[in-house]
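The aim of this short unit is practical: by the end, you should be able to scan a pair of folded records and say something sensible about each. We start with the first protein, listed as its amino acid sequence and then its structure tokens.
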Amino acid sequence: MPLKSPELYKLARQELGPLLIGLGFKRTPKASVASWCRPEGERWLVFWFQPSTDNDAYSPGYRFTVEFALADRPAVYTGRFRERLPRLLTGDEREELRQMANRTIARLPPPDMAFGNGLPPSMREHWLAGWKPRTTSYEPMEHVWFRHGDDADVQQLMLFFRRVLPSAIGRFLDAAASAAE
């Protein structure tokens, strides 16, 4: 069973909190989502977990992303410069992410065809595609969501995040500096 947002946030705080404290982050004030912030010069580096609005009983697992912003205040969903974590990954990291997503897809329960057969054919094809493994690598600028079908999938993603977050944060700050020039 996929984790609902509150459980996802709780697990993210538990699994990533110690690493992020070591990187100078603190929990973002007044945020209901799992989010962290730290001062970056005169601005704030903020990042948070953002669930998909399409997560429901009929979806092929649940999805979320992790979004970064360089903002004037320590708050989520703000900032002039924003980027999502998958776009900050290396090619090898994106490939690892694709393989994790495919393992999640392989373990998903089959789609509810009573629901699917009620969809128009073009929508049904799009919906069913969520149960098919990805055969090609993610492109660097592609919108990619982290997929999970159960707690084990989220635990794997947390291990992945602990490993990739420090360098992804550096890439985000480099990109923000380049955009400001």
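Turning to the second protein, read its sequence before its tokens, just as you did above.
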Amino acid sequence: MRKCRLALLWGCPLVLVLISTPTWAQDRDKGVIEGTVTNEMGKPVFKAKVHADLIGAHPQSTLYRFEETNENGHFSIDQLGWGEYVVGAMKKEDRYPYQLNKLYVTSALPHVTLTPHEPVAKVQIQFAWKAALLAGRVTDATTGAPLQTTFTLSRKPDSPSETYLTGQFADYKVLLPPDTAIYIEVSADGYKTWYFVGGAITSGRSPLRLGPGETLHLNIALEPDPSTASSKPK
């Protein structure tokens, strides 16, 4: 019997996680992608979530199907239509972000094509590194009240193609690609946008760069914006 559960993940849309027994052998009109997920040391990753993205398809919903790996790191995604797929995985609690997200994507991700003549594809997915972690609390600079915010992460400033948005609670956790310069801004309705400024730069924006597995705790206070009608602290 197929079991389903819903999970809301850090900075991700609502995802549907399916743990099921493959039925592709009973349906020759569909294909299957199977394989294993390993970490940077080559060891199997248990309960990693794997998604096969159909290249060229237009997204019609924020609901995505993920399959979980077993204790041997093995996964199987069945009931797939014919076409070319790119396959990526994630396990955010172990600091492995979603590989198909443009902030973390790598050219090493496997591409496979399913056809009636080749309905089964096998792939090997490896997490190349553990992400860095930026964590802390966002509050109102005047009242100290906690705020829910939106983090904007960019590899390049003012470049939409290099930008990732993620909603966060007051106590936030954001994964960053390691050894990569990332520009960070934090916004909330009724408040002035906060920009990360660090290093030797004393004005304007500057990027944050953290190493693999490194953690930076940073509390952020947002200043109310009197020019907006919703700027009154609650």
